[in-house]
Amino acid sequence: MFETVINLKPEDSWPQGMTVDKLIAVMNQALQFPGVSNAWTMPIKGRTDMLSTGIRTPVGVKLYGNDLGELDRLSKQIESVVARCRAPPAPSPSACWVAITSILSRTVLRLPVTA
Question: For residues 102 and 12, what is the distance between their CA atoms, to the nearest angstrom?
Fold first, then answer.
């Protein structure tokens, strides 16, 4: 996870027809990194969300359990359902993205603790 702050020019100096949603779509297309999902929000809102939920987005779903395969299957199922839930108009552009952060794609280091 890393954080980047982008300072934008005033909207009246943007290209004709450019909207916040279009700008985010262009930036999202250009800024793709393996294993990283983009969350577009205002800096103070992102910090507040992270402090209150542990997730860097306004809404998140955390799954817990012992069967990693089952958690992965359920997370993909939840992603497909949530991705269809687009409430027009979306309260904010960041409300339209769905991304899974899967433990199966991460390296896990187990350290035995002996007393």
Answer: 40
